[in-house]
Amino acid sequence: MALRLSSSALGAPLPKSEILTDFKAKIEKEPFDELVLDLTGIEKLFSWAIRVVVGLHKECAARGKPFSVETDNDSIVHLFKMLKLDSLFTVKAVGK
Amino acid sequence: MNLADQSILNELVVESREHLASIEPDLLSLERGETVSKEAVNRIFRALHSIKGGFGFFGYEKIKSLGHVMENVMMGVRDGKTQITPPMVDALLLGIDKLRVMLDDVGRSEDSEIGPELAALEGFADLKVQPEAIKIPVRAPDTAYTLNTLPVSREALNSFVRTGRHLYVLGIDINADLTRKNRSPLDFFKELEKVGEFVDSWMDTSPISGLTDCLEKEIRLTVILASVLEPDLLAGGFDIDPNRVTSFHKDEIRKELSGEKNKQGQSAMTERPGAANAAKIADPDETIRVKVDLLNDLVNLAGELVLSRNQLMQRLKDTESQSLKTIVQNIDRVTSELQEGIRNTRMQPIGTLFAKFPRIIRELSKKLGKEMEVFVEGEGVELDKSIIEALTDPLTHIVRNCADHGIESPQQRAKNNKPAAGRITLRAYHEGGQVMIEVGDDGQGIKADRVREKALENGLIRRENAAGMSDTELFQFIFEPGFSTAEVVSDVSGRGVGLDVVKTNIEKLGGTVVIESVAGRGTTIKLTLPLTLAIIPSLIVTCEERRFAVPQVDLEELVRIRAVDVSRKIENIRGYEVLRLRDRLLPVVRLNKILDIPNPTFIDPETKERMPDRRKRLADRRQGEVPEIKEMRSAGKDRRCSSKSAANVLVLKVGPNRFGLVVESLHDNEEIVVKPLSMYLKGCKCYSGATIMGDGRVAMILDSAGISEEANLKFDELSKESQMQAEKHARDLDKASRAMLMFKSSATEVLCMEISGIARIEKVGNADIEKVGDKEYVRHADSSLRIVRPADYMPVKPSVSQQPHVYVIVPKGKSKNMGIAADSLLDIVETTAIEDKKSLVGTGIAGSMIVNNRMTVLLDVDSLLNVVEP
């Protein structure tokens, strides 16, 4: 069963720590076979959001579960490639 | 693509073409070699690696893929895992051809179909092997980077050096440099790209363990950037701690690249003997790439400078000022050296052209089923670039002709005891200020008789002239359009449409082409070409107040015929005026006549006036109502002695032929700048170009081949006439000169007889002479030889010799077995002395001659022997 996480707050310029609390609770509460972070609708990712994405990847890695990101934004796909994060987890481009 | 990238791409295309051109000859030489040359394999490997890396960098995947597979093939050879075989070479050559096509239109290279080439190569390539790559290291943030550990390809480093950029490794702390400064990573990358080229980046996520610490732990983003900015500007401009900026200066990168070239990988191959003869690859720092258009502009400017120098020298030649003369001399010297230097920038070794032929012969060998090898000499001989480019097609055609018609089939070669592999030789060398190129084969040669028949069939010669033509003259017909003696026309050659074009193209370059051949042994085609087309040494001549330039390469000698000799040396044979020059007859052409200048004149050498010339023929003496001539006639003076009638003749070369061109006067030798004829004058055969003289006036450059054609000179007829006259002269000489034996048989007189009439001479002791009555005999073999003492029968004094022996001269071809006694043999002389039959007569006397200032009696052997024994 795939657990989908999303939050429009990930597009904010400043860190929102409540997102971390929310994500953490959902991961610990709901069993999942894979984790999907839905970034659809997010225009820009700031560096703090990137760190959150990395944190989610590490959570899944610790549990031995696959992690992927979905986005409808080409620049976010490009960014993950430039940072070589696409070698750590799957980055899917979805239609707008 | 921005302008800078386009410029780099253009340069990459040019370099890649050079790489491909260098791969081919190495590949073919490896195919032929018995042991593999490590250096050649490494060159091919590096070339393919460069092409693959360079175009991969720009995202041209098809070129990169094909280059990658070819590189894999060569890696196997380099590591000793595979051997070079003809099928492997075929596949690699196929790949090279495809790469060439893709390079010709790089923009559309992604649409190219490379399946067949990959399929041909895949059997030879270990596609699982990844070519050498610099792996991304896992390093702690503070570990110093070095150039050879960065994930940057050699091609990329080369391009940075070429474009003057330094390489930077930036360590960006996500928290400190981005989050706290409210920068998004993407915006940061965009800012970086404004000042340089983004090369690569990666993020070290190891400090983060999960959501708990993801916002607290610092993670490092590493970015590699190439930029022209200096390090302090870069760090300051992006507000990055300078300690986290590692910079590699472009000079440092260049040194690192040079160091890498020197330590190419070890291989399993042995060095091939003689590999030291392989061409030395130029150090890139010693050469610089220059556009051809720029060189052409420099050549034109040098030409203008030469003209201006000529004008300056002419204006100042009579100056009294010594300092000005010195300055002018200096300008003259510097201009000549500059012109020479600029000319040399356009010079290229002919080896670049010769390098194409091993591949061509390889293909033809397969197509024609003949084993053939190419040998090349003189690859270093240099020619102007434009001449080399223009030679490609003619030489290719000649080589194809050698392969198709020259070299015999393997069966025929075996029958003729020739080596199985036919030999085609390309040779270049300098001679007499020109470049000679010879293309030769050891094939079946050309049958002169066959050419003669074909020439008669085509109506090119008359039957009465055909027999007297030399082989070289006959072979020139092979250059006639449509002339072919080929029994089989192939798609390689034989239609008779190629060699005429070859000759025309060579002549357009100012060169000549001649065929030499020996039936059964082989054929050599010799091309003679000028070194350069732009500036040439020439002789300036005048005709009817017009100046003309005669290229020195066409000029063999200058002949001034004195007035007294004109009527003797200029003859009329078969309707042509000819000059007898030493042992040959030269057809003579008057320049004013061939240029159709009406109302010819001559310059009176005494009064310097220009007077009308009414001579119809050169050898005619001047006619007309010239008062001076009338006066000389009436005074009884031989007006042939007047220098007014002397003739200046230029002996010009047209291939193997020579002719004389009569001009009015000769001037200086000058280096002239050749300007091409305008389209309106291109049909004028007598001119090959024009030049501007020192005084600004134009002089036309004469074309000796065009003049001979315009004058319709029949060299073969005159050659035959010349040969006939030479033979007659030789016969006359033979008759006049006789070899005579001088001897004494009497007290005073010297006798002589022709050596050709003597069978033998024997020395006989007096004791061996036997007398029968008053006759003397000596035993010879099984018979007796009668000794005849001339004094007994001829009106000469008796012998008083006290010698214990006598010489017996036995005449040739006489039925009577007799020999003529001689006391002493004086000498054998070659003499042209005239026989005097009247002064001295008598028995046994044919006449007398003066030989060595002495009267000598010529012996009449027949009449003497008849008197002895009637």
Counting helices, strands and paired strands, the structural category of chain A is: alpha/beta
Biggest β-sheet strands, sense, barrel of chain A: 4 strands, parallel
Strand sequence of the main sheet of chain A, in spatial order?
1-2-3-4
Query: Alpha-carbon distance between the termini of chain B?
Result: 119 Å
Largest protein interface, residues of each chain:
A-B, 31 and 25 residues
Low-confidence stretches of chain B: 127-143, 261-284, 636-641
Structural class of chain B: alpha+beta
Quick check: average pLDDT of chain A?
88
Low-confidence stretches of chain A: none
Q: How many H/I helices of chain B?
A: 26
Q: How many strands in all of chain B?
A: 35
The fraction of residues assigned to DSSP E strands of chain B is 25-35%
Radius of gyration of chain A: 12 Å
In spatial order, strands of the major sheet of chain B run 14-20-21-17-16-15
- Overall mean pLDDT score of chain B? 79
